[in-house]
Amino acid sequence: MQRSNTFGKLLPLAVFMAGFGLSSITVNAATVPAGVVLAQKQEVVRNNGDEPATLDLHKAESDVESNILGDLFVGLVKIDDKGNAQPELASHWENQDNKIWTFHLRPDARWSDGTPITAQDVVFSWRRLIDPQTASPYESYLGTVNVLNADSIIAGKKPADTLGIKALDAHTVQVELTRPMSYFLQMVAHYSLFPISQADVEKFGDKWTQPGNLVSSGPFKLNSWTVNERITAVRNSNYWDNAHTVLSQITYLPITSGTADVNRYKSGEIDITRTIPEIQFTALKKELSTQVHVGPNLGVYYYAFNNQKPPFNDVRVRLALSLGLDRHIIAEKVLGQGQTAAFTVTPENTGGYNFTPTASASWTQEQRNAEARKLLAEAGFGPQHPLKFNLLYNTSESHQRIAIAASSMWKKNLGVTAVLQNQEWKTMLDTMHQGNYEVVRYAWMADYNEPSTFLNTFRSDNSENTPHFKNADYDKAMDAALTATSKDQVQKDYQQAEDLLSSQAPVVPLYHYVSAKLVKPYIGGYDDNDPQGRVYAKDLYVIKH
């Protein structure tokens, strides 16, 4: 899942309110400490960081959309903070050898308009995702999940209705895989596989996501959408677990400016910020202390080269530009919220795996610069023929700060000129999809807690392969990891993939994320421990203040 800016569990972690000293009563969603008095008005406003490009689950591709979609829709299962699958629309399931999976839907599961959620809705949704006519950015996801016939459908060799999923009856769905997958449930929890209403899509066509048309399965339903101003969602009384939802309304604002985000938080307009601007972090930590929340967030921020466009089809140029950036300065000085310098694409301890970075990670920056200048000279660039290119990023103060720092490093260390260009989020997505860029700011946030969520995006045929990287050895390494019979062998295969990303440099990983937000002290249920930094409105409640 992409990240645009610097993003209820069944067993959530309650936020303990300092001073109460009270035990808690655990329910399936929001966990309200005993004795805490709830506010009469249960409404929360959060900054979403940008205007969503869509609310179509099959067209979305970033956390700008998934922040909202995760409140409107739910999947067959959901994953708790410990990585365990918990029942959601499916009350239970079983499998045969991790290859044939059967899900039993809750008989009382309803869409927000009161109509039943059926197994056929699930089948329709998965087929629509992979149908080439949908043109989903996650089209290849079901191939990655290894659903039967997915690869042939993606290649145009078979129709979508041959996908290995079927409705055994109104409340039973069966999925057949081409090979066993131990982490299949983690992948099923991704929003692209959340069911949508077949009747709704067929009735309204491309307008099915508009207010008044959209029906949803989650704890909230779409109420209003004023473009570039706000989106509101209200409690969905037809949600199967509505009894454990506390909020009556959640509002999402599309504020791209981190400074404006903080200012509106301080003025009382916002309860949860999108992030915290790096230049204000230290001061806000002193001023607001307990309102500053920093937690894990499995994600990597990087610059992607257009590997098919000269001179970035030359690995020497890509490696040189990678070596010429001081990641430690960017992570620790430009950002300084706990982000770590990235010398691998996959963050540390993703799914319990750790990878050895390339040898240059232990060099001094002076050594990296010397090697980079040597590579550029071999590629035909130097003082008499300096390299110049465009660096594209989406509008954001943080992205701008990082881009200015990176361009300064390239200029000082290598004599290279990076011309900065910025576009609004939706425009930049279109530019990337059309391949009309040289180097672009990008990020990937984990769709599930396993290294393949990062590494699969660099497969030659992956629909999220933004840099257009094609390497047969890389594809073989990823294929080998799928058939490995031990975690040690999987580790070796993934390490080979990481080594190829280091040696071929289709992207420059800059840093690994943390989640940093301001949260009002009267907001309960905020989860500081979600490994993917997710915030679900179902978990939240407002304390009387």
Distance, first to last CA: 36 Å
Task: Give unreliable regions as ranges.
Answer: 6-28
* Gyration radius, in Å: 23 Å
Largest sheet: 6 strands, mixed
Structural class: alpha+beta
The pLDDT mean sits at 92
Portion of residues in helices?
25-40%
Strand order of the largest sheet: 14-18-13-17-15-16
DSSP strand count: 20
What is the global morphology? globular
β-strand amount: 15-25%
Helix tally?
A: 16
Could you explain the architecture of this structure?
Helices cover about 30% and strands about 20% of the residues. It is α+β, with helices and mostly antiparallel strands. The strands form 6 sheets. A 6-stranded mixed beta sheet has the order 14-18-13-17-15-16. Strand 4 and strand 5 form a beta hairpin.
